[in-house]
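Lab notebook, bench 4. Still working through the backlog of constructs that have no structural model yet. Next entry is a single chain of 366 residues. Request: give me the structure tokens for it.
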Amino acid sequence: MKKSLSEKLTVLVFLIFIGGFSVANLLAEKKTFSENENRNLAPAPALTVPSLFGGKFDDEFETWFSDHFISRDSWIELKAYLRKESGSLENNDVYYAADGRLIRTFSTWREASLQQNIDTVNAFLEDNRLHAAIMIVPTASYGQRGSLPDNAEISQPALLDRLEDAFAGQTFVRVDDRMNGTDDLYYHTDHHWNHAGARLGYEAIAAQVLHKEPQAFTYTPVSDSFYGTMYSRSGAFWVQPDTIVRMDPVQPLNVEVAYDNGQTTASLFMPERLNEKDQYTYYLDGNHAFLDIHTDALGGRKALVIKDSFAHILLPYLAAEYSELQVIDLRYYHSPVAELAAQADDIYFIYSLDNFCEDPNLIFLR
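Model written out:
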């Protein structure tokens, strides 16, 4: 059967559209980094005989083409918006919650990993005859649970009860019971707690470890344009940004921070990081293997903090209590930890609950 003129025109228009779109996509300026997704984009694949016939080139080309698709961010946002409007409660394991909040799901964990981390921490402390304060911070899905669907998450208090029992010989610092009555303790577009949530953590440490009243702080907003990891992951690029706040003790504090890269600063904050996508790195310059913080705080006490990124925004509070804070991140620090711990008056483990359940790097304690 012969095709009609209209059918031929339809096919022609379609081919022109696809061909033109493909050519435009290939010729468009290519980026190496996605600000919205906060990650490096795939480089152009190298065309070699082994990669072509082995199938590697096809896979790499598909990844490169997807990463550099023209108006990629707009397509990602459109997909997320249509998913939300169709009734979906989440995208890429991020809940669309009330008030534009984007909350990472936490509904399961690997039991073997959790038990290994419990055993590793206990063995490290027992073998070296150490006592530690262990703070495992609930995730944003607990702190903002009023914004989530019913039965969407595990019972974090029950899991924290288990951890408290597992670390019965240590000081287990609970924060979850202090979070009742308010749900504005976490960023709306990021998985970290904010300055108000970290303040509750500091108050818990003051009560359970330092046995004193917490100090007073002043709070100064320094940015109102922070888009965090949940913003990048969810594709919900229409939500409002978060605010980054500087915390300073009312009693003036002089500090010196020595970083593992040789840099030294006289501040706990990095204002230049506010010009970047990940403004959470304003606090102590983000992830580093080792930090050595000296202050003129009274008392002359020294602490070792073994942590993940949840501790970054808590450290400005702790710095007001110690003349020295040594801070290590086991993702990058693989030197002996016991030597540092033996010199400390107080030892802290500060992790988010979901990360403590899964982090494979605690093995570097041993």
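Notes after review: The mean pLDDT is 85. Residues 107 and 154 are 5 Å apart (CA to CA). Flag for follow-up if needed.
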